[in-house]
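Re: the multi-chain job from yesterday

Posting the exact lines I submitted so nobody has to dig through the queue logs.
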Amino acid sequence: MPVTATESQFDLRLAQRKRFGTVMLCLFFLATVFGLLVLLTLLVDVTVTGLRWLDWGFLTSFPSRNPEEAGIKSAIVGSLWMMGLTALFAVPLGVGAAVYLEEYAPRGWFLRVIQVNIANLAGIPSVIYGILGLGLFVRFMALERSLLAGSLTMALLILPVIVIATQEALRAVPSGIRESAYALGATRSQVIWSHLLPIASPGILTGVILALSRALGETAPLIMIGALTFIAFLPESVMDPFTVLPIQIFNWTTRPQAAFQELAAAAIIVLMVFLFLMNLSAILLRNHFDKKRAL
Amino acid sequence: MKRVPSGEGSGSPLLQANLYNSPRERIIKWVLGLSAVLTIFTTLGIAGVLLGESIAFFQQVSFRQFFLDTEWTPQFADKHFGIWPLLSGTLLVTVIAALVALPLGLCSAIYIAEYAPAPVRRILKPGLELLAGVPTVVYGYFALTFVTPLLQRVLPQLQVFNALSAGIVVGIMIIPMVASLSEDAFRAVPRALAEGGYALGATKLEVVTRILLPAALSGIIASFILALSRAIGETMIVTLAAGATPRLTLDPTGSIQTMTAFIVQVSLGDTPQGTVVYQSLFAVGLVLFLITLGMNLGANAVIRRFKESY
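And the result, structure tokens for all chains:
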């Protein structure tokens, strides 16, 4: 058998093949690091540009035509209002829908249609949700350019995210827990309320926080429903006009004056700090509950 | 929360009460079911709003003009409603984004799934998630105030608003999506296939490119389609950095307008409701909706149709 010939062929090329492998490994690594380097560049650029505008006056002043006096008070308050209202609408609906799909819905075409629909909803561009909000809430329901119209639009936008996260959290609950609760005579709602939801809550909460952080950063849908950029007062009811941080950033970025673009950078720092804190709390929450469950 | 009375004495009255089908239980079931059905109504609402105004639009602008005219000038006195300049703008940005994101995303997926040691992966994955979590308006700011000036040093003819830097930044935005979905596809390939390759004397790279890559191909292609659909629907980066000049061109150095940027432009202005310009927003939205819906359904079909099952 000419085994030796084959072996020598392998030996001849092996070093070359391995070298090629190493070269490609370096390429793969560089490609992965590229994204992170861009992120780092972005953060450094924004910090360097915006930090000198970031002071107490900036956080507690209303927008102004004079960059020295301009601030983001109304944008911060607007963002907080909008997040609270969005959560109020989206969390019960999203968790409810997920519980129904996982625990009640009979397997069949109905469930399949809803699942495919939710997956598609998650892929629809946010600006289309803005058009929905404009047509349905602003015009048809005549909510005008209010906080309520903005929050309802945002709630529909993040609903699929919450449903999908909650479904995953419910699926991760061991079925033995359901079965033993049913075996003891608990009704469906009791099993859900006293067993499934508490056990799945860390996963649900993580999903909710991530969904809300998406709502915090979204701009396009709120431009569509007409969130204003120049708001020199705080909203007092859900029917008041409003602005949010991303809209303020958008507005300042489009100004030709360099000073306003630097203000945009300062507002971006504030927005990114908010987002970072939310992500951090999601991670800490998950770790905390994971530890507790392990005990 | 009412507790079930513990079955002191006999259990039979309790069973007759049939708590499992009590009105309370049925009401809860219906309320939860209603919130699930609401997701269907969201889709119907989107379709209804888009179609309603689009029908009004097409009563004034013929399909012929919409699909055959090569100019888009709704805000001029001489109005033209040819969708092609907006489509070409969107296409241009998407192609540039694809050139950036598909190779980089796929290589990241390969590195994270197959090469990265566990501690490195624990840093890289949250890092990419962070990249995915950056709001698009921040990316838009970055494209306009950092990437464009940087590129202008190399390409002096680059305009302030251009498709190139917008496309590159959109590409960077979708890298994490390609990477994480493709990584899942790699992880779904059974380890035995890789082991078989090693047993035959293949190097690691050969196992990755000739065994794992073909086996994971359906998932990878689906991740490409989904990421590009996201690029087509991306709004703030192109609104801020790509300009507002609908032009039928493939020149990436100049100002263009995408479908999404047009939608934002109209809604920023004081366009009165009921005018043809206002309605054109919904017609463009309908085209955008159909394209992204088609791509999302296509990605699902690719996964179902070409999935290798082991």
